[in-house]
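Ligand: Phenylacetyl coenzyme A. Inputs:
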Amino acid sequence: DDPQQLARFEARVAADDFIEPNDWMPETYRKTLVRQMSQHAHSEIVGMLPEGNWLTRAPSLSRKAILLAKIQDEAGHGLYLYCAAETLGVSREQMIDALHDGSAKYSTIFNYPTLNWADIGAIGWLVDGAAIMNQVPLQRTSYGPYARAMVRICKEESFHQRQGFELMMHMVNGTPDQREMAQDALNRFWWPSLMMFGPPDDKSPNTERSMRWRIKRDTNDDLRQKFVDATVPQAELLGLTVPDPNLRWNEERGHYDFSPIDWEEFYAVVRGEGPVAQERMQARRKAWDDGAWVREAAASYETKHASARIA
Ligand code: FAQ
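Predicted complex:
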């Protein structure tokens, strides 16, 4: 990189300027953004699967309508994010190929199965809750198209989180069995939700540079702690027990202390060994193959109209 251009870029970022698609940027900045934004987009798309699993079994029409709207929002988020990433000179096909051949990641959380209806509540409450904690600061990420996509996404995620909490509220006020389902969902989703924030700061190879370039505005551990601090009182309100015997308020730190995370499990899931990882990828590849005729029809429609415009 040209040192003068780099210095100008660094100064702009440090002054909280947004970097736009036609602005000069270091190649590593561009690559980091393509990686993070495409992985974020893939997470939204793969994230439809665990919830889609319950669409035909939602217990009422209104729950079904809410769930359907939420899943459609996730598809929209994926699409805005792919569009925003395309402004960095990568095509959607390239990004999707990378997902399908396993070279691009998606959030570990979506490799866990949804076993009971309360899991839908737990996903909204915890998974969307964690996603918001991470995405609200990204509204001020230094790359303009990514920051702007985040504004709308955060509004929708906030509705997702609320519907999840409200569903949990119904479950805990229902029959003893329903209450047990809510506790079971919390037991299974708590630790994977904390893992969503990524490896600890001292094992996170990208954090330092991404913080300097203001791609990330907070570190993984800081966001994880914020999430724990915000969520524990919500669990108390629900009358549910967070599955961590060492969880306690630390007056001195002004934060909750919690047990060490099982990072072996995290890395195994990142490597593609999660409980339903293979099913998730098979479902995505099948959806892509089944949709081939739509892409072909759209392309041939476009060609026909382009030649009509010329004629
Ligand atoms: N899963 O150096 P770091 C949602 C990878 S959206 C898998 O700390 P970085 C909405 C990481 O990529 C959820 N891989 O990396 C919804 C890197 O590998 P690489 C998604 C992970 O980028 C709700 C390596 O480990 N949100 O849920 C994970 O600085 C409900 C080293 O890590 C976003 O993507 C993980 N959890 O920080 C949808 C937000 N963590 O790429 C449906 C944007 C780390 O070098 C239903 N992304 N890795 O090969 C970010 O903020 C960041 O990318 C982090 C990771 C914080 C995820």
